[in-house]
Design goal:
The complex is a heterodimer of chains A (121) and B (319).
Chain A (H helix, E strand, L loop, with lengths): L1 E6 L3 E10 L4 H13 L4 E5 L3 E4 L1 H17 L2 E5 L3 H10 L7 E2 L2 H8 L4 H5 L2
Parallel strand pairs in A: 2-3, 2-4, 3-5, 5-6
Antiparallel strand pairs in A: 1-2
Helix pairs in contact in A: 1-2
Chain B lengths: L1 E6 L10 H14 L8 H11 L2 H4 L8 E5 L5 E4 L4 H13 L6 E5 L23 E6 L4 H8 L15 E6 L6 E3 L2 E8 L5 E8 L2 E6 L9 H11 L4 E5 L4 H5 L10 H11 L3 E5 L7 H18 L6 E4 L5 E3 L1
Parallel strand pairs in B: 3-4, 4-5, 5-6, 10-11, 11-12, 12-13
Antiparallel strand pairs in B: 1-2, 1-14, 2-3, 7-8, 8-9, 9-10
Classes of the chains: A alpha/beta (121), B alpha/beta (319).
Chain lengths: 121, 319
């Protein structure tokens, strides 16, 4: 699992690649916590390239979300692949984290001023 | 082995309400209208073929009690929840009070929902019966005796006619009990809890309820996977959703269907049976969780297929 990040003025978009499971959940958690620590408004997790998230990966998400709440930063999840979306529903994570169809939709809800930077070429 | 479920609900007995029964009848009548269901046979076939289990039956309301039929002359049970009463009534009716029997019981822990059936366990009242109650839990005898005492219950333990013995087991050590080999395993649960692996003739059943699993605790997970390794049937505490076990209900000592699938896949078990259902869930909700768990297994499968089922009072599984 590799994750690329895009820094916006007050938010971060994190884009992990591949599978998130027990073998890399800690690394994923560290990347999320770093993103939370360097954001002022929101961290958008773009899951468009993520094929699978195990319970360990979901736990990392919840830890980062709690860290974000303490700093006033909202963690949002966007652009899930169908399988990952099913896993979110089955585990009921869709009820504890804000989920969006697209990154743009997530930004529009969680950090609207960031849209201009996001849309800029 | 044959596994017979007498109580499958978590935390406390949860009877089906009159309103719920009425709703099921109304829904079934509407679905069966104009279908010529004018004999019991036709109606039964309609229920079997066209109604889901949640529509035509109920997962049930008794708390934990599971019978492991090893084919031998002596009985073997896991836990003495309220389901033990129904088991006991059937056993006494089968043999009659004049034919003494031996009952072996493995108790996971002494929280009330796992021992509350004992005061109503008819064989305990009958002289000649032998009841051997085993657990790795150190306070087993104290809890069972304390339950059969004033002001909680009118029949004192000393008044029970059967020969009742308490045997403390050591986790990790195999014992010959009731025609099977039984090994206990400590579990993460407030006040301590123990799972049991029951083996007979090359087949194995793991009874693991009231157990929380933290995937980040690699050593504990590896030990549990070893305990479950290759089991033909795993009866698993799936009381909450994964999200609940990691947030609101973290450290409440229970697990989820998602963790059940992951552990069974890691252990290459053959069959996961969801157990210890949350009392606030109705039949439709438990059925939906079953369907979702079957789907989760499908989309995460990398090797051998894992069979998924959901326990209900009266369910029989051949192992």
């Amino acid at each position: 699992m590799e994750a690329s990040r895009r820094q916006l003025p007050n938010s971060v978009i994190l884009l992990p690649d591949g599978r998130i499971d027990l073998s890399n959940a800690d690394r994923f958690k560290d990347a999320l916590l770093e993103a939370v620590a360097t954001s002022k408004t929101a961290v958008i997790l773009d899951l468009s390239r993520t094929l699978y998230v195990s319970s360990a990966g979901l736990r990392s998400l919840l830890i980062a979300s709690k860290a974000g709440v303490a700093r006033g930063v909202t963690l949002g999840v966007a652009a899930m692949q169908p399988i990952v979306k099913e896993i979110f529903t089955i585990s009921r994570f869709h009820l504890v984290l804000p989920c969006f169809e697209t990154v743009r939709e997530a930004l529009a809800r969680l950090d609207p001023p960031a849209l201009a930077s996001y849309d800029a070429p | 082995m044959r596994v017979i479920f007498w109580g499958t609900r978590g935390s406390l007995p949860t009877p089906l309400s009159a309103k719920s029964v009425r709703e099921k009848i109304v829904a079934a009548l509407v679905k069966g209208a104009h279908r010529g269901l004018d004999t019991p046979e036709k109606a039964a076939a309609f229920c079997e073929r066209e109604l889901s289990f949640a529509e035509s039956a109920t997962f049930g309301g008794n708390s934990s009690c599971v019978q492991i039929d090893t084919g031998g002359p002596e009985y073997l049970l896991c836990d003495l929840g309220s389901g033990a009463r129904e088991f006991a009534v059937g056993a006494v009716a089968k043999h009659g009070p004049a034919a003494p029997q031996t009952y072996h019981v493995l108790v996971s822990h002494v929280h009330w929902d796992h021992i509350m059936g004992f005061p109503f366990f008819v064989p305990a009242f009958i002289p000649g019966n032998r009841i051997r109650i085993y657990s790795c839990h150190a306070r087993l005898e104290q809890a069972i005796r304390g339950q059969n005492a004033a002001p909680c219950f009118p029949v004192e333990f000393a008044a029970l006619g059967a020969k009742i013995e308490f045997i403390q087991l050591e986790p990790g050590r195999p014992y010959a009990i009731g025609g099977a080999i039984v090994t206990g395993k400590a579990q993460r649960h407030g006040g301590e809890s123990f799972g049991y692996r029951i083996e007979k003739d090359g087949k194995s059943v793991v009874y693991t309820t009231d157990s929380e699993h933290k995937m980040e605790d690699v050593a504990a997970i590896q030990a549990f996977v070893h305990f479950m390794r290759g089991a033909d049937l795993v009866i698993f505490d799936s009381m909450y959703s994964l999200a609940d076990t990691l947030s609101l209900k973290e450290d409440w000592g229970h697990s989820s269907n998602v963790i059940g699938v992951e552990l069974c896949q890691m252990a290459e078990a053959g069959h996961l049976c969801l157990f210890h259902h949350e009392p606030i869930f109705d039949d439709a909700r438990i059925h939906k969780i079953l369907e979702e768990t079957i789907r989760l297994e499908e989309i995460t499968r990398s090797g051998r297929a894992l069979r998924i089922s959901s326990a209900h009072d009266g369910l029989v599984i051949e192992v």
